[in-house]
Amino acid sequence: MTAAEVRVGNFLKNLPFFAGLPEADVGVLLTAGACRSYQKNQHLFLHGDRAEKFFVVISGCIKLYSTTEGGEESVIALLTKGDTVGEASIFDGAIHPFSASVAENAEVYEIRADIFKQRAKESTELTARIMALMSHEVLGMQREKERLASMSAAQRVGCMLLRLSAGMIGKGGTFTLPYDKSLAAANLGMKPETFSRALKELQPYGVTARGSEITIESFEHLAEYSCAHCSAMRQACEGDKRSFPHEEPKRANQSR
Questions:
Q1: For residue 237, what pLDDT is reported?
Q2: Residues linked to residue 33 through DSSP beta bridges, in sequence order
Q3: Architecture (CATH level 2) of domain 151-236
Q4: pLDDT of residue 244
Q5: pLDDT over 50 at 249, yes or no
Q6: CATH of domain 3-147
Q7: What pLDDT score does 84 carry?
Q8: Can you give the pLDDT at residue 88?
Q9: Which residue among 60, 117, 150, 230 is least crowded, i.e. fewest CB within 10 A of its CB?
Q10: With contact defined as beta carbons under 8 Å apart, do 58 and 109 qualify?
């Protein structure tokens, strides 16, 4: 096994989807897959293509999108390190309901659908993981619709920044956006100028932007503002895996 294969194997084993799977399942999926490098604007697949692979993003950014009858793109999601797509490949005759193109040069791990499907039939644990992953994606889309209806542009941008910085440790920190701001705006369903204004509105909450570099002084302070109108519980939020201190709810005085 080469050093690159060891690196990728260790990376995959630490992802939530793979972590804790029986060694036999992990072994089959690792031997059935291969890494592939993609350049910006290349496609992984197009809308209507047969779902023949399960993809894991190792680095870079993948854009999932649909195209209107007028030829305009509608961004569905932006996938970055650790994200997956192609779960439907376990179903016979499945096709992709959207297209996937490379937004930033990417390295992707691809698992053949036939082996992925066969292993899922043999492993109840793997099947459960796949169904949970698909359920999680549906819930994510529902929450995104809710955010669009109930949160301001600044709150939605703040929510996005919290998700992108979720792996950081400490009170605050600085990170680089994994894709350009125009793409981030499209993913949130807003115009670039609206996105820029929203970033400025977040300055009182400790957010500063210098080009693609974002600094958040206090993750907790930003979360208090951005999460005010979101139904997701803090501990269950996919974009905020930090443990913030919470005040214990005050109990009403009971009469004796």
A1: 56
A2: 111
A3: Orthogonal Bundle (1.10)
A4: 46
A5: no
A6: 2.60.120.10
A7: 92
A8: 83
A9: 150
A10: yes
CA dist 55 and 49 (Å) reads 14
Residue 46 has, within 13 A of its CA and on its CB side, a CA count of: 3
Q: Which two tokens stand for residue 39?
A: 């350049």
- Distance CA(226)–CA(241), nearest Å, equals 15
Nearest to 86, CA basis, from 59, 120, 60: 120
Specify the residue for token string 């072994």.
Answer: 27
Residue 125: strand, helix, or coil: helix
Name the residue with tokens 């993609």: 38
pLDDT at 69: 81
What stretch of H or E contains 3? helix 3-13
Do 3-147 and 151-236 share a fold? no
pLDDT tens digit sequence for 111-144: 988 888 888 888 888 888 888 887 777 777 777 7
List the chain domain ranges: 3-147, 151-236
How far is 136 from 31, CA to CA, in rounded Å?
26
Mean pLDDT of 73-94: 89
The set of residues, in sequence order, having a beta carbon less than 8 Å from that of 87 and lying 6+ positions away, is 54, 130, 133, 134, 137
Structure tokens at 115: 């082996």
HSE (CB half, 13 Å, CA atoms) of 213? 3
Residue type, 130: I
What is the number of residues in the chain? 256
Give residue 120's region: left, alpha or beta (phi > 0; psi -120 to 50): alpha
